[in-house]
């Protein structure tokens, strides 16, 4: 049944791909970064660890990394882990490229994909990923647009297929309706179990959490972030 739903689903990308025009230095940094790190979805790999320039012990995925604050922090904290960052928004990818340009190099444990994450998920081998982060995704707050939210039964099937048993799907948002939506969808999915040891767990940021500019804005505007972790059973 899960396989049939995946085959039936043809997702459209909702949202902007371009924002402000890039400055020449940003554009040059982005071009150099993509030449180095962009994944081309040719023949699917038997093991995504082979996608990296140097050996890695496991591979994690971050979908919609925005300006890249969290992704860069994790790449630095876990050099033996390979990270695939997905961001279709050109300006977000450019921010990450500029930050790396300022640091003077591209990490060997980072690859990126600049298109629809569902295509990448379908390309990856079964039980090959050790963690998925979906942090502050577009909430589509109007009820008529909720069907556009990335968390849905079809994409949870995709997550369940690529995640190794015992690995984690982490979701953060400051929008109450999306937090509730995600809890309900994950609790209804037999492959996921919410990891919460106390009533306040959802208020506690993840270990090593660097914060993001979007999160800081949400807090200034009086919205409370929620940090959910689901185990792939």
From TrEMBL:
InterPro entries: SAM-dependent_MTases_sf, tRNA_(Gua-N-7)_MeTrfase_Trmb, tRNA_methyltr_TrmB_bact. Its EC number is 2.1.1.33. S-adenosyl-L-methionine binds at residues 62, 87, 116, 138. It catalyses: guanosine(46) in tRNA + S-adenosyl-L-methionine = N(7)-methylguanosine(46) in tRNA + S-adenosyl-L-homocysteine. Pfam families: Methyltransf_4. Pathway: tRNA modification; N(7)-methylguanine-tRNA biosynthesis. PANTHER family: 3-DEOXY-D-MANNO-OCTULOSONIC-ACID TRANSFERASE/TRNA GUANINE-N 7 - -METHYLTRANSFERASE, PENTACOTRIPEPTIDE-REPEAT REGION OF PRORP DOMAIN-CONTAINING PROTEIN. Catalyzes the formation of N(7)-methylguanine at position 46 (m7G46) in tRNA. This is tRNA (guanine-N(7)-)-methyltransferase. The lineage of its organism: Bacteria, Pseudomonadati, Pseudomonadota, Alphaproteobacteria, Hyphomicrobiales. The gene is trmB.
